[in-house]
Amino acid sequence: MFDRAEIVVRAGNGGDGIVSFRREKFVPFGGPDGGDGGDGGDVAIMADSSVTDLRVFKRKRFYRANDGRAGKGKKKHGKSGENLILTVPVGTVVSYKTQIGGHALIADLEQPEQQVVVAKGGKGGLGNSHFASSINQAPQIAQKGEVGEENSIILEMRLIADVGIIGYPNVGKSTLLDMVSAAKPKIADYPFTTREPILGMVEVGQRSFVLAEIPGLIDGAHLGHGLGHGFLRHIIRTKILIHLIDGSSASPAEDMIRVNSEMSLFDSALAQKPQLMVVNKIDLPQVRARLGEIKDAFNSVGTTALFVSAATGENVPELMAETMKMLAQVSAEKEAGERIPRKVFRPQPRRISISVHKEGNTFVVVAPGVERIVARADVTGSEVQWQLNRQLQRLGVSKALEKAGVKPGDRVRCGNLEWEWQ
């Protein structure tokens, strides 16, 4: 099963605004009519019930949305770039990959058609018609489109199951799943028969739940040993666990403690999940002869265990009934504890964020909106230089430079443009 992938997504760049003027034969007053550039396309990830794994992302790692088109004359707006929507299985967790090797959660796509934007497209630049004023009726400047976001994304598929069966290899997990559901897992007497999680639907009276068999855990699974490390994440979404223990083991109670320790080392929250401790293989004579001893061992560590035979079905109906009872209790407690969060509105400042710092003898202006104007300006002409200075004053750049201590003759740089302050 391909249940984890790392990809790189890049949103589309915004289209450039343009410098244009009306030049119609019978129009006495033309004026600027440069159109705005179109916005770049977003990259979004959407849960799709028809997708079963992340296989496609193993073959292709880089995805990019379309760029926006540049504006045109007559104030024609450039076409926006088409959004790119990547489909993943329901139950996929989407995270940003961080530089320190971890990841930051973006969204948990638990419902079909639920989606999240993972890379925002750049905004289109403004055409020169936006820069006209009473004292600047023929602006020669426009704005360059924003660059689209680029992010490294981690996709992790986590099964959506109500109950998970955990335990060491060959304790009878596949046999139990086969006994209580229509799922047909592979059953054999060698370790790691099950190499990927398997789901089955279990009916108890008029109710039902989804049961998942998790591949066997071994000591050191949290470090990547065996198959367990790759599938421990699938336990996270389950509501309760059936902890299946081999009754023929030398110390069943000790096996229970070690498996819980592995889960806790992987994620401390896993060890807090409600569990049903179940000792299997009581159909074997050597196990049945030790039932009293095994019960005492579990009692000594403060745990009560159920005893079943997945092979013959002995006590399995009682186990499923107890599972449904615990599941209903946990679900009720979760619903009672959930509260609808109040939406908090946090208005964003409308002013362009401007900062000035010094590199050597040069004052460097950091202001994305201004940099996009500078990138589209041809400053060879004195008229354009005057217009650009007007924009710097209007947007507060001149004031920020003066506050930083700039003096006539100092060098100033913004984006790719450097000039002498006057």
Please tell me about this protein's structure:
The protein is of the alpha/beta class and 422 residues long. The chain has three domains: 4-157, Spo0b-associated Gtp-binding Protein, Chain: A, CATH 2.70.210; 163-335, Rossmann fold; 355-420, GTP-binding protein OBG, C-terminal domain (GMP Synthetase, Chain A, domain 3, 2-Layer Sandwich). 23% of the residues lie in helices and 23% in strands. The protein is built from ten helices and 18 strands. The longest helix has 22 residues, at 316-337. The chain starts with a strand and ends with a strand. The model is unreliable at 190-195 and 221-228 (pLDDT under 50).
Compact description:
It is built from ten helices and 18 strands. The chain has 422 residues and is of the alpha/beta class. The protein has three domains: 154 residues, GTP1/OBG domain (Spo0b-associated Gtp-binding Protein, Chain: A), CATH 2.70.210; 173 residues, Rossmann fold; 66 residues, 2-Layer Sandwich (GMP Synthetase, Chain A, domain 3), CATH 3.30.300.
Rg estimate, integer Å:
32 Å
Q: Which CATH top level class of the largest domain fits?
A: Alpha Beta
* Model regions low in confidence, pLDDT < 50 over at least 5 residues: 190-195, 221-228
Ends apart, CA distance between termini = 65 Å
Trace the largest sheet across and list its strands. Answer: 10-11-9-12-13-14
CATH fold-type name of the largest domain: Rossmann fold
> How many extended strands?
18
CATH superfamily of the largest domain: P-loop containing nucleotide triphosphate hydrolases
The percent of residues in helical segments reads 10-25%
- By DSSP (H or I, 4+ residues per run), the number of helices equals 10
Order of helices and strands: EEHEEEEEEEHEEHEHEHHEHEEHHHEE
> Which CATH architecture of the largest domain?
3-Layer(aba) Sandwich
Mean pLDDT: 82
Can you tell me the number of structural domains?
3
Structural class: alpha/beta
Characterize the main sheet. Answer: 6 strands, mixed
